[in-house]
Design a protein that fits this description.
- With 379 residues, the chain is α/β, with parallel strands linked by helices.
- Strands 2-1-3-4-5 form a five-stranded mixed beta sheet, sandwiched between helices.
- The longest helix has 30 residues.
Length: 379
């Protein structure tokens, strides 16, 4: 029996692969609606906030202090207990010294010396501003002054002695035994050199604070900044000494000693500025200006040495780096570096104190930051 072959079952037609559903076109992100325009008063208050206001007030106060300090120091100079030595015959020496010290306003502080050599030694050391030699056989005496210690002081001594001598119908011929160098008009070159050193010192510290941050982030950063200031101070001291010496001929000689003093002064100004910045942030620069510019410059003994200044400026002069620096520089140039130890101690004390404040203050702030305690906000 014939069997028919089975017909193959029909295969289903292949289905096309499913197509992905079309994605909707991306919509642009909604733009925030423009802020309504601010009025002038609202924009002014936003730009001139509390911090800006306090900074402007601070500048105004510094400016007023600047005017008060400079005009107060210089508007009415008068000598006060300017030291002079007196050489006179024994029978009148004590009486003459007493009369000079009793002049109204106490412009002089007279002391007797045994001989002319002793008086000249005091004059050469800068320990006295004048030496009055009385002529026992005539009416013409001799007055030796030290113009290198400050022309204003020498002139003041001459004026007071001239008045005192005129009252006794006497006259004194004046000789400048320690004259200023030819390029050092009125003995002001040293003052302006010290001012330049100080300006460079506090400017470099302030700019380092602006370039990075007023307060170093860590104690190591503070130490690095203090180290970086050393070569700057050395170069500044040397540059100043070269300019006033070989270049301008204002203060010739003593190049190494002047350079070393300059390095100390520049470093002093720089580290003091840094210390104030660590304590007060940006406001520390303003405090630096008060110390070095408002108080320091008029009391430094530039146009008028300390004995010619009013009581306040006369008192602070030797205690500030400005006055200590000017005094030390004049003694280096004109008085054989005699008696500058005290001035150097003052400058060194500021340096040591400022370094201590900078390192310890930075360490304290770093510890507070590690504990999650933010430092107090200061301008």
């Amino acid at each position: 029996m014939n069997q028919t072959a089975p017909h193959p079952s029909p295969q289903p037609a292949p289905q096309p692969a499913p197509q992905p559903a079309p994605q909707p076109a991306p919509q642009p992100a909604p733009q925030p609606a423009p802020a309504p325009p601010q009025g002038f008063l609202a924009e002014f208050l936003e730009a001139f906030n509390r911090r800006t206001f306090l900074l402007v007030i601070g500048v105004l106060l510094i400016q007023a202090g600047f005017v008060l300090s400079y005009v107060g120091a210089f508007h009415d100079p008068s000598p006060h207990r300017v030291p002079i030595a007196v050489l006179a015959p024994a029978q009148i020496s004590a009486h003459l010294v007493s009369e000079l010290n009793a002049i109204g306003g106490q412009p002089l502080y007279a002391t007797a010396v045994a001989d002319e050599a002793a008086g000249r030694t005091l004059l050469r050391h800068g320990s006295t501003s004048g030496l009055l030699i009385i002529n026992p056989t005539g009416t013409t005496d001799v007055l030796l002054v030290a113009g290198g210690g400050g022309a204003a002081t020498a002139t003041a001594v001459q004026d007071v002695i001239a008045q005192a001598e005129a009252a006794q119908h006497r006259h004194a011929t004046v000789t400048d035994a320690v004259p200023a160098q030819p390029g050092d008009a009125r003995g002001l070159s040293g003052f302006y050199l010290v001012v330049g050193w100080l300006v460079g010192g506090y400017l470099v510290a302030a700019l380092l604070g602006i370039a990075t941050r007023p307060r170093p982030a860590t104690t190591r950063r503070a130490i690095i900044r203090l180290i970086v200031l050393v070569p700057y101070a050395i170069c500044s001291g040397l540059a100043g000494a070269i300019i006033v010496g070989p270049v301008l001929g204002a203060l010739t000689g003593h190049l190494i000693a002047i350079s070393a003093l300059g390095a100390l002064i520049v470093y002093c100004a720089a580290v003091v500025t840094m210390g104030f910045q660590v304590l007060l942030g940006t406001l520390g620069v303003g405090l630096t200006l008060i110390l070095f510019v408002v108080l320091g410059n008029p009391s430094a003994g530039g146009a008028y040495p300390a004995p010619l200044l009013p009581a306040f400026w006369r008192a602070i002069s030797p205690a500030l780096p400005n006055g200590a620096g000017v005094q030390a520089l004049r003694h280096i140039v004109y008085f054989g570096s005699y008696d500058i130890t005290g001035n150097l101690i003052v400058i060194a004390a500021y340096i040591v104190t400022a370094i201590t404040v900078a390192i310890s203050g930075t360490s304290l702030l770093a510890r507070r930051a590690a504990k999650g305690k933010p430092a107090a906000e200061v301008l």
